[in-house]
């Protein structure tokens, strides 16, 4: 049953690999950014899963002695989410500029126009 | 400085540049004022770094509890000889790049957007300094992303449209690197329950889940390796350096990879410990092979570049190979050579990219055919390029010689004769690619663009010559660099200070 008990870790690994594969295999820059975003999100799930304490409640002030989940990974991931949003925003704005300069967002068409990729 | 802030210097090192970034936007209507402010901030940061280094050398490591929260829970800024030295490199380079940027940036950026450019520079500066002074593993990731995001912006400002694709490519690889670092730090947190570096170092030896620890190490090395352009992960670097605006290239080339090397050293030696990295895992062997491949291919590919900025970028890949080579030896001598080369490479690449920026300012091209005959039209810039090039090759009386000398000694000390020979082969390749430029710029008949060129403006020449003279000064008087690098290497090898 350990396989099912660790399902959130498996989901995180699956999402990371899907995201990574999209970044590597897709030539469309927007799809690359989507894959990158997915890859980052999988790490958020990994962190949140770490903080879980078996039988614990949400980490708010309740009666003394209650078991609660570790809130620190949640806080860390709030920061990482901000980083992820900022990265996506910068990436999309770069894509807009690339579209203006090249008239396309396909990697191979950009490559044909000059040898930069 | 006064005594009021004396205890808060570690925090001010990061906070002062951070606050100057939004100020750039507030004062956006007065671009000159913004520039003056940023220059003053980098000088203040340099003064802080110097005084931190002095007090670390005198009294030992400084621990600063951010916001008054005690160390393992709150964020600690911990300064020892190693990061005080790296902070000195970063602030030193920034304080010559900012004066240089005044004339140089105007070429790339519309007048009303100049303040935005400085805001990005300051954010990048903040991120790099933050990574350097922090003693908290997660804080490293946050500052890494601050510096990376602003770097993507800076690179995309280049005139050529390839700057955009270079920035995008760097963004994709840099984000993957950053996320790998995040995963690595997460695994360290899982096995220890702490994020403070000193606390991590104290708790990791008791850890029994070695597989998790090894996985964490692998993720960290690959993630940081992407950032420092370790050989097969360097693909983002040549285009990013080649197409970014000159002042941004100088700043990024001279500081960003250096800070990434520092983070690698910190994780390998202080946090995880050399026993795990070099004995349980084959980090030394892998780093040595990649370093040698990097220094040979980097130098070799550089020979065939037509764009000289791109050539210097490939040479940076090679120089990072030298730095990694010293690290891979895992001896005090090897680390000392690496730390020396960190400082010296910043000086020589800073000077060389500044010279390229001056050429570009006059002829609007970095291609070798356009540079033909430029040496006679712009003698001061050309002389600076030659001295930087000699330093890159490692000719005696320049800084390049000092670090290569120590690297050769470190290799021989471990009995690696072949490595010493390879280091010399790398230098010979550097002779070829530097000579190509000298030959074209001095002996060839002037190109149409070069014939019209005049000497670069004084505002660019002075900062460049400060770096060139530093190349010579630290090549002759090695007391400061060798002394500090030796102490820093000793600190790293002992684990925690």
Commentary on this structure:
By secondary structure, chain A is mainly α. Chain A is built from 5 helices and no strands. Chain A has helices spanning about 1-5, 5-25, 30-50, 70-100, 105-115. By secondary structure, chain B is mostly helical. Chain B has a domain at about 345-495.
Summarize the structure.
With 117 residues, chain A is mainly alpha-helical.
Topology, number of strands of chain B: 2
Strand content of chain A: under 5%
Q: Please state the structural category of chain A.
A: mainly alpha
Helix content percent band of chain B: over 70%
The main sheet of chain A comes to: none
In quaternary terms, these chains amount to heterodimer
CATH architecture group name of chain A: Orthogonal Bundle
Strand order of the largest sheet of chain B: 1-2
What is the CA–CA distance across the termini of chain B? 27 Å
CATH T-level fold name of chain A: Helix Hairpins
Structural class of chain B: mainly alpha
Average pLDDT level of chain A: 87
pLDDT under 50 segments of chain B (min length 5)?
none
Please compute the radius of gyration of chain B using only Cα atoms: 21 Å
What is the helix fraction of residues of chain A, given as a range? over 70%
SSE order of chain A: HHHHH
Keywords for this structure?
heterodimer, A: 117 residues, Helix Hairpins, 5 helices, B: 497 residues, mainly alpha, 2 strands, 77% helix, globular
Could you give the topology of this structure?
The complex is a heterodimer of chains A (117) and B (497).
Chain A: H1 2-5, H2 7-25, H3 29-50, H4 72-102, H5 107-113
Helix pairs in contact in A: 2-3, 3-4
Chain B: H1 9-26, H2 31-59, E1 62-65, E2 76-79, H3 81-104, H4 114-133, H5 137-156, H6 162-192, H7 197-203, H8 210-228, H9 237-243, H10 246-272, H11 274-280, H12 283-303, H13 308-329, H14 332-363, H15 374-377, H16 379-393, H17 399-413, H18 417-443, H19 448-451, H20 458-476, H21 479-493
Antiparallel strand pairs in B: 1-2
Helix pairs in contact in B: 1-2, 1-4, 2-3, 2-4, 3-4, 3-10, 3-14, 3-20, 4-5, 4-10, 5-6, 5-10, 6-8, 6-9, 7-10, 8-10, 9-10, 9-13, 10-11, 10-13, 10-14, 12-13, 12-18, 13-14, 13-17, 13-18, 14-16, 14-17, 14-20, 14-21, 16-18, 16-20, 17-18, 17-20
